Amino acid sequence: xxxxxxxxxxxxxxxxxxxxxxxxxxxxxTTILNVALRTLADPVHGLGASQAELEWAINSYTLxxxxxxxxxxxLGDRYGRRRFLLAGLAVFGLGSLLSAYAQxxxxxxxxxxxxxxxxxxxxxVTLSIIATVFDPRERPRAIGFxxxxxxxAVAAGPILGGxxxxxxxxxxxxxxxxxxxxxxxxxxxxxxPESRDPRPGRIDLPGVGLSVVGLVTxxxxxxxxxxxxxxxxxxxxxxxxxxxxxxxxxxxxxxTEHPALDVRLFRMPRFAAPVALVGLVxxxxxxxxxxxxxHLQLVRGHSPLHTGLLYLPLxxxxxxxxxRSATLVRRYGARVVCGGGLGLVTVALAGxxxxxxxxxxxxxxxxxxxxGVGMAHITAPATESVLAALxxxxxxxxxxxxxxxxxxxxxxxxxxxxxxxxxxxxxxxxPATGExxxxxxxxxxxxLAGAYGVAPGLGADATALLATxxxxxxxxxxxxxxxxxxxxxLGLLGMLRWLPGRSVVPTGTDHSDPAASxxxxxxxxxxxxxxxxxxxxxxxxx
Length: 542
What we know:
Layout: H1 12-32, H2 37-41, H3 51-79, H4 81-100, H5 105-133, H6 139-167, H7 172-175, H8 177-191, E1 195-196, H9 205-228, H10 233-255, H11 269-299, H12 304-310, H13 312-321, H14 325-332, H15 334-351, H16 361-376, H17 379-388, H18 395-429, H19 438-446, H20 448-454, H21 461-498, H22 514-517, E2 537-538
Antiparallel strand pairs: 1-2
Helix pairs in contact: 1-5, 1-6, 1-8, 3-4, 3-5, 3-9, 3-18, 4-5, 4-8, 6-12, 6-13, 9-10, 9-18, 11-17, 11-18, 11-21, 13-16, 14-15, 15-16, 15-21, 17-18, 18-21, 19-20, 20-21
């Protein structure tokens, strides 16, 4: 028993369990979908989705999540965190149910957007609830469990997805969320106390609207250009309009008193560099993961379960090593640790440019493991640097900005690198599709999954088509890998220029409080208190 009076809630550990399970749902859904992409593209056993539609199935979730994360966090602080946790779980469960029974790709895209809305309501309030119910001296440990659940979700998602697809139809990867969401609703209603911020921030509705419109328009232009070509005015109109709206968003955020995203923070190189680093790493890593899922299941012929198991080194390396990276940062500084990590990620991504249909499977497992080791030594130290660059009272803002940039980077990575994949594949497969009927030719040129979908009806011509399609996809994958490695290398140069070599504690930070110094906190928290810490009031005991 501790020698001090514990001011935490009596049910704080079961409450932590509710928040962890809720976070598992949100994070696992982003990884479980990777192993289902081939099945969703199958016209018989799935929805016959094109590559662009699969990109939208991923990005509709990510863009809504990232676009509304700040706003729903503020609303949760204002109107009640338990209320928003329960509402988020209900919406997430509903979106999962709609996704499971989607009848066509467009329905799946819309249902995934509903899931993103639920996820954006869940994630910010889980940290605020932990800050409310735990004594400050126990809080770093609680946040450690919260952060470790992210690594667990990354590891469990592909494996669970593979198991479900081995025994059930594709909708099971979404339907599995429903009973967990219902259990979370019941447990949350019974265990989690209501809490509010007595001085909540105001809501920047114009900023939220501009960010969502800009990101969606830009992403649509990139994805559509990759699928149908960038030689059409409508594509460039969408891309340029999206960029213009995002510029207007930045202009608005600089002038409003209550910004959805405080862009003025990016004037500080010690803040901007690690945030940009996280965005670039997830841009490169998410795009390559999207491509590699098709390579493993179509070119190599692995089952969804086997594919999920192959991603295990990537996830386990982050789960095991990320919490230990803080020790290396204290000894060598963030620049050295992040530099080593980003170097490993760059090498791993570039290594995919050497992978083909005959590459031993252990080589792919090693590449994914090296990437996981690298990312384990980037995310946590970068987050630590972000928080160290800010006064303690702005630690929550730093964490929120990092999460948002990570989500946007992942969405744009899938979009941009997916567009590169589509453009190179279409150019390389064209010689084998010239004499095919129009509808068959469009499907075969649209994606590798499309070529496999139409091949059974081609008779003797199927073998030649699939051989050319496989070679075209591998060539396109090499282009994506080299571009992703170049992006990671660009991040390495910026990091060496601006990331601090040692932990820098801003003026006014109290070393006596582990929440202020970063302590031995886990990735994503660095021991810092999330939004609302120190200002929350329990509104009831449940």
